[in-house]
Specification:
Three copies of one chain form a homotrimer. The first copy, chain A, is of the alpha/beta class. Chain A is built from eleven helices and nine strands. Chain A has two domains: 11-134 and 293-305, Rossmann fold (3-Layer(aba) Sandwich); 137-290, Rossmann fold (3-Layer(aba) Sandwich). Chains A, B, C: It comes from Pyrococcus abyssi (strain GE5 / Orsay).
Chain lengths: 308, 308, 308
């Protein structure tokens, strides 16, 4: 697989070998950065971050990654300051901006926008989210985090908790995990179960999948608990939401039954699905997970720029 | 002419020698950048981009140019995030910001703002548009593009198409072209003809100027067709606009009569005055023209910073 | 005092030795920058500027300082483009952003926000204003300016003019000046006198403090006149404001009685409390004062990053 010039649009475009390449490159870059303090792989290169809708954490993570590689950044943080307002097509905007840079990171409210940008641009395009919150770099940093914490992904028992129906983050992660030998525990209220076709796909690929509505029943088995925000606005009935909400908050009491090695992850931002009291336990790794976004994005930038 | 510390406010301040210096410096920097990948002329220098009104493409082009020279960038993309809101005068804002940087690029909705900024500031000021869309760097990149495509400007037949009445871009380009031995074809609907005083000025300076309302009549003669956006909002009558619009769209049919060497330019953004089907023809160079903005702005920055 | 990793939240946290360290480091960095053109103390380091409310001059000053040190900058200029909108706590935002950077500069509308950020973050946090316009770097650059102009602070007669009641900038400056042997002249309308408890505190610390409502009476004695904006909106009565306003404008007439060495300072932005005609006199140093913000912020960044 030639990485130079490659677009990164969906995790579905990645083979297991691709994923392993990204994880190994991220590990190497993280180590080199720690040793040397400053890398110069992307010296003289320019990243354009085109955020047609705001997403501070994702934008700052990519910009940090580019700077850590010694490169420069241009771009915009929201569409209101972009020339999109003048009625220009996305196609023309991309054809224009690519003249100013070596790689594009795009975030766009419309599904398919990143794919279109990739088709139009000659420089590589990385999808930082289009239409939903799903984006391939989140899944890659999730996998990187699991591997870094346990030294492996194979053999782990991984629980996904929360909104498994609409949450694209957990859909992508579950699909990517089929490359590995893991047991998957899907923990959600009835209303928010993982769609049937995804569960079937996971099982067809040989994955052991357990579904439950009660975290307490499975917490003792898990190596990883991946928590997602339950989005209140999805619920037709406020009372229904409130009942569900309480039963799913991860707090110290729930964790009494957890294994010592349990790691709790979250793509953030969180609202109340993890109580702040959990932050100081050895289980909480969600801020380390945030940190891991930087080496993973460094790896992707270095690979598609062809500088590593 | 000493370039170090010079302000770049209007193309009218430029002699032919000045223009040639910019074009030659741009050519040199473009070549050096290609050979070395990274230049360091502006290492340790800071550009402040003060965009009192948004203009993403112009801002990103300047920022890219500064980074390509190895320099750094600070600034703001729109006035709402600037301290202008606190009732500070433009004069004080400029006197303040110049303490933080080595060169200023300013875009401002009020005509004369860039000239005022230049008078106030001790660091050099480059006008990225004030009051109208005219700005000298557009004209310079237009000239650079023509020279790069043909190896010369003299002897060419250049058509300007569209709104020649209000379009400052074409006014500036036409005036700058009087330094060269070109034939100018002014193609526009009656309502949007080039103002009489400009046409007279061009002819007084010895330029051959032909005016027409019909692109088809002259397309076969042209080496360059410079297309501008016809701004719908200028027309008192929607029907009149629609009739005009159709007759002026550059598409494959119109291009059947064009010379092989014809190059089509556009300052962008475009709306529908060039059909996307033209993009893949050998005639379309408007995205290369966008790219040329970078070496031209690199040249200006390096010259006024006195680092080349 | 170990500076590496230290937070800079309030000038009240600073000993005289701390202040002297910052001033000496700023002087050294300003000299080195002049000699070498470009410093690399912060090469490979990343500053995150988190401006939850806009403050262009402060943000650009910090960003300039970081670039002058050879470092990189990420961040946002106003809260609307940040993920705060998704209901995330400030605590989580800080814990997240610190994963992307080596030092944080924060500006926040709520008092106490910077202190909270400092408690949460493992990277050093510098307060660029929270709740009021007071921030420690303003006071430090004011002291640096006085020392640079006179070679010393001890022995000077310093006047503070304007809104001494609400103006936190002058409160902080007055408090910091108790470390030095200065005479302080508090010049304000009756309604805007310095709060009693501050005046008493100053006197208890041995400072000679003179209060007056009439600039003309004391202008001839002063070495420094520090002017602040009188904020119209504080006045219950427009007529009262207008009367006060006129009597306090610093203009050429008022300056007739001033000593030759008088230096006029202002934290800016100004509205009309200093007439523009004063700008070109030898007394006006408020734009040099702006410039001094850069070496002072360079010093703070270098110190808390532990790179000097």
């Amino acid at each position: 697989m030639d990485w130079k010039g490659r677009d990164v649009i969906s995790i579905r475009d990645f083979s297991k070998e691709d994923i392993e390449t990204v994880l190994a490159t991220a590990e190497r870059l993280e180590r080199e950065l720690k040793e040397k303090g400053q890398l110069e792989y992307a010296k003289g290169k320019i990243l354009a971050t085109l955020f047609f809708e705001p997403s501070t954490r994702t934008r700052l993570s990519f910009e940090s990654a580019m700077h850590r590689l010694g490169g420069a950044v241009i771009g915009f943080a929201e569409a209101s300051t972009s020339s999109v307002k003048k009625g220009e097509s996305l196609r023309d905007t991309i054809k224009t901006v690519e003249q100013y840079c070596d790689v594009i990171v795009i975030r766009h409210p419309k599904e398919g926008a990143a794919r279109l940008a990739a088709e139009v641009a000659e420089v590589p395009v990385i999808n930082a989210g289009d239409g939903s919150n799903q984006h391939p770099t989140q899944t890659l940093l999730d996998l990187y985090t699991i591997k870094k914490e346990f030294g492996r992904i194979d053999g782990l028992k991984i629980g996904l908790l929360g909104d498994l129906k609409y949450g694209r983050t957990v859909h992508s992660l579950a699909e990517a995990l089929t490359f590995y030998d893991v047991e998957l525990y899907l923990i959600s209220p009835e209303l928010l179960r993982m769609p049937r076709h995804i569960v079937e796909e996971l099982r067809e690929k040989g994955m052991k999948v357990v579904e439950t509505t009660t975290l307490e029943d499975v917490i003792g088995k898990l190596d990883v608990l991946y928590v997602t925000r339950i989005q209140k606005e999805r619920f037709p009935d406020e009372q229904e939401y409130l009942k569900v909400k309480g039963s799913y908050q991860v707090n110290l009491k729930v964790l009494e039954k957890a294994k010592d090695e349990l790691r709790i992850m979250h793509p953030l931002p969180r609202v109340d699905e993890i109580h702040p009291e959990v932050d100081n336990t050895k289980h909480a790794i969600y801020f380390r997970q945030v940190f891991n976004g930087v080496p993973v994005r460094m790896a992707l930038l270095a690979l598609v720029l062809g500088v590593i």
